[in-house]
Amino acid sequence: MKIYINGKFYAKDSAKISVFDHGLLYGDGVFEGIRSYNRRVFKLNEHIDRLFESAQSIMLKIPLTKERLIKAVLETLKANKLDNAYIRLVVTRGVGDLGLDPRKCDQGSTVIIIADKIALYPEKLYRAGLVIVTVPTVRNLPEALNPQIKSLNYLNNILAKIEAGNAGCDEAIMLDSLGYVAECTGDNIFVVKNGHLYTPPQCMGTLRGITRDAILEIARKNKIAAHEHVITRHEVYISDECFLTGTAAEVIPVVKVDGRVIGQGKPGKLTLSLMKKFKELTAINGVKY
Ligand code: PXG
Q1: Is 209 touching ligand 1 by the criterion CB < 6 Å?
Q2: What is the distance in A from the centroid of ligand 1 to the CA of 183?
Q3: CATH class of 123-284
Q4: Is the CB of 76 under 6 A from ligand 1?
Q5: Which residues of 69-101 are buried (b: 16+ CB within 10 A; e: fewer)?
Q6: Is 2-116's fold the same as 123-284's?
Q7: pLDDT, position 119
Q8: 2-116: which CATH topology?
Q9: How far is the CA of 187 from the centre of ligand 1 (A)?
Q10: Which atom number of ligand 1 is nearest to the Cα of residue 213?
Q11: Distance 191 CA to ligand 1 centre (A)
Q12: What is the CA(63)–ligand 1 centre distance, in A?
């Protein structure tokens, strides 16, 4: 495996960053998880744009232009000879002292690109569907740490993941501070009711997922009514179908939420059709390498 760090490639065992990097010390940095299918990077420009937006929001200077960074991602994929990959793009604040002041990280940020394989959930869960639970940990408040910032600080989501595991479930629903459904730990959530698709609006403490947007795009093209609307737990419980979307998870059905069986207790028709259409989209779309 070849890992890109600040313009050079390193073998897995020698790919190292400083213990003084504020990415490690404070989770001070931003990242993206990207996928490639058949030597095409899916929604690469969208991921790069979101990375730069996260960086802009936390006043982190990415030392490469968008064009150079895209080139670096494609070069990393080529160097690793991967046709299908999960790409982790990380930009940390860089090396500083033991105080949290980012202005002391004067050598600039560290850019890391890792391309590898990933399977977020076991294959059988894509056929059987996930059993999920609402957890006590509330999603970060947008006015404190906006979930639109894809920062290295994922403890909020990790706590929710631990709580889901403690409850014997595959994934967690996180609520926003008002008690509305926000998202899952690394996925956005959709429900289907009477043929209509619903997903929470991005202003409600959810990340504007690129997979989520791809599903909304597929819905529009196929004349499926789709709404960005606040969702309560009740609306999830009485939905006909439920599924999650994310780069790592792709599209995965949910069959039980907080002990309530969703629909017929198996992946729904519209969910299965969207999974198929998403697969078709990833096969033809994307930046070639
Ligand atoms: N919400 C959150 C909080 C996320 O972290 C998504 C939604 C889906 O967004 P995309 O753009 O990927 O459709 C994410 C995705 C993981 C993992 O292992 C997930 C993400 C990042 C890192 C790891 O599940 N982000």
Answers
A1: yes
A2: 10
A3: alpha beta
A4: no
A5: bbebbbebbeebebeebbbbbbbbbbbbeeeee
A6: no
A7: 80
A8: D-amino Acid Aminotransferase; Chain A, domain 1 (3.30.470)
A9: 5
A10: 13
A11: 18
A12: 24
Q: What is the pLDDT of residues 56-113, one digit of tens each?
A: 999 999 999 999 999 999 999 999 999 999 999 999 999 999 999 999 998 899 999 9
Query: In Å, how far are 115, 224, 235 from 80, measured between CA atoms?
Result: 7, 39, 45
* Catalytic annotation present for 150: yes
**pLDDT score of 120:** 77
CA angle 84-86-87, nearest 5°?
Answer: 120
Ligand 1 neighbourhood includes 205 CB (under 6 angstroms): no
The domain segmentation of the chain, as residue ranges, is 2-116, 123-284
Q: Find the catalytic residue in 78, 117, 124, 150.
A: 150
**DSSP per residue, 226-260:** EEE----HHHHHT-SEEEEEETTTEEEEEEEETTE
Q: Mean pLDDT, to the nearest integer, of 195-203?
A: 94
* Short-list 46, 44, 42, CA closest to 84: 42
183 lines ligand 1 (CB under 6 A): yes
Q: Which amino acid is at 154?
A: Y
